[in-house]
Amino acid sequence: MVITIIDLNRFLAESPPSILERTLMAEYLLAKGYLMSDLTTLPPQVATDLMAEARRFSAIRLVEIAGGGECQWKMRLPISLN
Length: 82
Description:
This protein has 4 helices and no strands. By secondary structure, it is mainly α.
């Protein structure tokens, strides 16, 4: 396992939305079995694709958070195909 050292002063000095966005991207990558630091060891196209997916995931989650969970609630409604 790779241990990443984080400069907490720099991390906390950044704006909260960017911290949240990166945290959500890291959450997505972890669910796929990767750490952010793993991206440097992957083939470039694989890393690019994973980051694009992570950015989309983060953007959707940020909209849900900003909307107070309203989008999430709407997405969970049952859909009738009749």
